[in-house]
Amino acid sequence: AWASARNLPTNDPQLAAIYKDKYTIEEQIDALRIKKASMSEDAYDDALEVLLVQLARKAKAIRELEGRKS
For site-directed labelling of 15, which of 25, 33, 42, 61 has its Cα 20 to 30 A away? Predict the structure, then answer.
């Protein structure tokens, strides 16, 4: 289970927006996993790859912003 968007670990509005995007992507990944059985392997892999790349970019942005504050 992913963290709730209501429990954001920051008061920084810019960082909070990125966390919300990250949680949305995580929810999309969960939804995709539920649909996996009804999809072709290639379609699932392609969709998952797009979401994982987006998730990685959000995680990087969070690390960069949090690192900047330290």
Answer: 33
Q: Which residues of 15-51 are buried (b: 16+ CB within 10 A; e: fewer)?
A: beebbebbbebbebbeebeeeeeeeeeeebeebbeeb
SS3 47: helix
Cβ–Cβ under 8 Å, residues 18 and 61:
yes
Helices (H), the chain: 13-35, 41-69
| pLDDT tens-digit readout, 8-38 | 667 889 999 999 999 999 999 999 999 999 9
Q: Which two tokens stand for residue 40?
A: 């072709």
What pTM, to 2 d.p., does this model score?
0.82
Query: Which SS3 state, helix, strand or coil, does residue 19 take?
Result: helix
